[in-house]
Specification:
alpha+beta; Immunoglobulin-like; six-stranded mixed beta sheet; 21 strands; 16% helix; 39% strand; rod-shaped; disordered N terminus; Ig_sub; Ig_I-set; membrane; Junctional adhesion molecule B-like; Ig_sub2
């Protein structure tokens, strides 16, 4: 005697988009679709996994900061006005108590993109001619990581290493390095951050002044002083020995008056 057992499909949970990328302050739709064997009123839960597991939607209600900023349709969840802290891995779990296999789940990863912020810029106020200089630029908030451009007097600086330029510019780190500065490098510098999300942002322009080397100036001043001092000593010696014309005339005049 053969025993016939009818086939049945267990609860299945799927998503139409496993990776979701949205800009900051927009809405994110996390898709979750399910099919059950017998259960007509399954239990839907959403969890967010990080260092710890936290409930987002539990027993028909949103929890914590998601209250009032999220909605659900079936098992698909919409988060409104997302920020960077909402990025992470979300799990949709569907429990069908009357099904043979009672639990199904699917994972959705949310990545919130952040437009560039005004970067912090480090530009030295003064640099001595003939010395090296380094200008720095950083935007720590943009996602994905920003790339950087530098401008001098509102004109873009080259990123390629051309033989006629005396600097190197790294668009990934935002560092602008001068090997040896000259007077022509003096001007107003600003940095621009961009990452393809929103408009690029710049820091306020800052002026870099090129000055003469103080050591050279001091050396010239000391040299001039020593030269004048040597001249005075030489004149005094000449006068004592009677080598100088003015000193001989004065000496002769004195001797005549004495006689």
């Amino acid at each position: 005697m053969l025993l016939y057992i009818p086939s049945s499909d267990p609860v299945t949970v799927t998503t139409s988009k496993a990776k979701v990328e949205v800009n900051e302050n927009t809405n994110a739709v996390l898709s979750c679709e399910f099919k059950t064997e017998k259960e007509t009123n399954p239990c839907v839960e959403w969890k967010k996994r990080g260092k710890d597991v936290s409930y987002v939607y539990f027993y028909g209600d949103f929890t914590g900061s998601f209250k009032g900023s999220a909605s659900i349709n079936g098992a698909t969840m919409t988060l409104r006005g997302v920020t960077q802290k909402d990025s992470g891995v979300y799990h949709c779990e569907v429990t069908a108590r009357h099904d043979k296999i009672k639990l199904g789940e699917v994972t959705v990863t949310l990545n919130v993109l952040v437009a560039p912020h005004a970067p912090s810029c480090e530009v030295p106020e003064t640099v001595m001619r003939g010395f090296s200089a380094e200008l720095r630029c950083k935007d720590k908030l943009s996602i994905p990581t920003a790339t950087y451009s530098w401008y001098k007097d509102n004109k873009p600086l080259h990123t390629s290493n051309l033989p006629e330029i005396n600097y190197t510019l790294d668009p990934k780190t935002g560092t602008l390095k001068f090997k040896v500065v000259s007077k022509s490098d003096e001007g107003q510098y600003r940095c621009e951050a961009s990452n393809g999300v929103g408009a690029p942002k710049s820091c306020a322009g800052r002026h870099m002044k090129i000055t003469e080397c103080k050591l050279i100036v001091i050396a010239i001043e000391v040299g001039a002083f020593l030269f004048l001092l040597l001249c005075c000593v030489a004149i005094c010696l000449c006068c004592r020995r009677g080598c100088c014309c003015c000193c001989r005339s004065e000496y002769h005049f004195t001797q005549t008056n004495t006689i």
